[in-house]
Write a structure and sequence with these properties.
5-stranded antiparallel sheet, 13% helix, 107 residues, 3 helices
Length: 107
């Protein structure tokens, strides 16, 4: 899979704006609705969680994608032009703060 770093626009997801840190990173699958398909998310693996939220989007293993589906365990994210979505741990995903999901959970 080709890795693509978060673009500069991802810098808007900083702790000062979202109030998120390592302990509350992630998407709650139980709060997803059908309107969240296509939502932009930032994949932030454990290896990228150094120095707080401010530096995560610049890490080489962090990348943007869009939600294509989910089940009770994983959120399936389409990254770039990859032919298949990847099953991601919900705790490794940060929602775009402009998404309907983010407004519903008030981040």
């Amino acid at each position: 899979m080709q890795r693509k770093n978060c673009p500069a626009s991802g810098q808007r997801m900083q702790k000062g704006k979202t109030g998120m840190d390592n302990s509350d990173l992630g998407i709650d699958i139980s709060k997803l609705t059908p309107e969240d398909i296509g939502m932009r998310v930032c994949y932030v693996p454990q290896s990228a969680r150094h120095g707080g939220v401010d530096g995560w989007c610049g890490h080489k293993d962090t990348m943007w994608g869009t939600i294509s589906s989910w089940n009770d365990r994983f959120i399936h994210v389409q990254f770039g032009n990859e032919p298949n979505a990847q099953a991601c741990n919900p705790k490794d995903l940060l929602p775009d703060h402009l998404s309907n999901y983010a407004r519903r959970i008030k981040i």
